[in-house]
Amino acid sequence: MNTIKFTSIVLIFFLLSCVSQKKYTTLQDRTQLCENNLSTSENDRSLLEASLANEKNRSKSLEQQMEYFKSTNTDLLARLSDLSVVSKSGAESIKQSLKALNEQNKYIKDLTTSMQRKDSINLVLVMNLKRSLDNFDDEDINIEVKKGVVYVSISDKMLFRSGSHQISNRAEEVIGKIAKIINDHKELDILVEGHTDNVPIANECIADNWDLSVKRATSIVRLMQNKFGVQPERMTAGGRSEYLPKTTNEIAEGRAKNRRTEIVILPKLDQFFELLEPPMTSTEN
Question: Is-above-0.85 flag for pTM?
Answer without folding.
Answer: no
